[in-house]
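Ops channel
N.P.: pipeline sanity check, posting one input/output pair.
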């Protein structure tokens, strides 16, 4: 089968959740024997060395530049959401025609931007759109948490709320178009599928390759290290780190004064003021994440917004690292609080669960063992081969509902 895979960034090296997912799906396609060409949208030059190092039979790599287009007053009448304005989509789609789209059996597009790039392609072939983040859901969560949805706002805040709500309507309209045009819309969980408009859809869960050996070394006598890792320019992660360091950390240090909070990942300027807080180490980007995983006593992920499934949690489970997270952080993972992870939504309760794990080696070991077992039966990417085959052939589809 000949496949054109449209990525929003070079999947290699897989330094973020989105890149990990793209790289894993490409590996599974290669294992199926697919003939794959790769389009990288928005980056001037792909890292040829990194692609070669992935050792995949990606025969050709195309780069489609993200050409800027001025945003004018007329642009606001566009049906596209604001974050998709300022891009010359017609020019980008024209550049894509050099790929000779008629020769492909499958077009696999990542996220709504990938769809906008391929939407003019003939619908005679299979078009799969992988919405590994439901973008409008994230924006709605941020809108609600920011307080712009509450009553009693100033005139300026009311205008801001109206603008945000109009943009959410544009997002919903874009997702309706995706559902109408795509042969299959792919998401990470049943929870995400419930957020889609009527369409033919399938679930391809996030995953992780089983590590050999797992990084966690078990509870030890050293001072606890509480880990958060991820892409720290991503708004849900910025908010989670801010809560962890500003609200949860002081409560934990009252009980565990020797504990360290280690935040790993390239971070935005928004987190710069947190670098100098007591008991905090912000590493920035690291070349070898497994060194950080081996150092960790537990993963703390107080995530309050986001869609998809939380790859940092899946990665911790794979390595046997005890996990403390929120209901949102556990979303779509079928975790059982007290068995495969500890789940707490209140700041005080979250801090208490961190202290429990650090003080109770038997609890930490039970969480580690149960988490690894849960991972092995649900989220090992080796389970993804049949799931991907079902997605591409249409065997796992939920039917398009009438009255769309």
């Amino acid at each position: 089968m000949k496949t054109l895979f449209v990525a929003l960034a070079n999947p290699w090296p897989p330094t973020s959740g989105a890149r990990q997912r793209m790289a894993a799906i490409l590996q599974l396609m290669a294992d199926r024997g697919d003939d794959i060409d790769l389009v990288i949208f928005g980056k001037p030059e792909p890292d040829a060395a990194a692609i070669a190092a992935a050792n995949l039979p990606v025969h050709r790599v195309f780069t489609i530049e993200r050409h800027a287009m001025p945003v004018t007053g007329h642009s606001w009448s566009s049906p596209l959401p604001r974050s998709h304005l300022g891009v010359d989509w017609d020019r980008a789609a024209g550049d894509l025609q050099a790929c000779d789209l008629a020769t492909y059996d499958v077009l696999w597009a990542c996220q709504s931007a990938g769809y906008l790039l391929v939407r003019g392609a003939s619908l005679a072939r299979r078009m799969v759109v992988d919405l590994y983040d439901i973008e409008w859901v994230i924006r709605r969560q941020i809108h609600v948490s920011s307080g712009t949805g509450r009553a009693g706002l100033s005139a300026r805040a009311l205008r801001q709320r109206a603008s945000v709500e109009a943009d959410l309507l544009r997002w919903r309209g874009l997702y309706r178009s995706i559902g109408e045009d795509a042969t299959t819309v792919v998401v990470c969980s049943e929870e995400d599928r419930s957020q889609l408009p009527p369409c033919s859809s399938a679930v391809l869960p996030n995953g992780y390759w089983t590590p050999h050996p797992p990084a966690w070394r078990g509870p030890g006598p050293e001072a606890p290290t509480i880990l958060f890792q991820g892409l720290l320019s991503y708004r849900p992660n910025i908010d989670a780190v801010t809560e962890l360091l500003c609200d949860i950390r002081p409560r934990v240090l009252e009980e565990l004064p020797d504990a360290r909070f280690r935040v790993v990942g390239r971070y935005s300027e928004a987190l710069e003021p947190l670098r100098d807080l007591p008991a905090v180490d912000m590493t920035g980007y690291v070349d070898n994440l497994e060194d950080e995983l081996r150092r960790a006593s537990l993963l703390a992920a107080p995530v309050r917004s986001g869609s998809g499934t939380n790859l940092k949690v899946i990665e911790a489970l794979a390595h046997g690292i005890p996990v403390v997270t929120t209901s949102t952080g556990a979303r779509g993972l079928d975790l059982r609080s007290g068995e495969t992870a500890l789940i707490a939504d209140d700041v005080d309760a979250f801090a208490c669960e961190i202290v429990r794990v650090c003080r109770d080696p038997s609890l930490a070991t039970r969480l580690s063992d149960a988490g690894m077992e849960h991972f092995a039966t649900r989220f090992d990417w080796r389970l993804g081969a049949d799931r991907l085959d079902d997605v591409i052939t249409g065997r796992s589809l939920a039917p398009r509902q009438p009255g769309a």
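N.P.: looks fine end to end. The chain has two domains: 2-134+171-207+382-393, 225-379.
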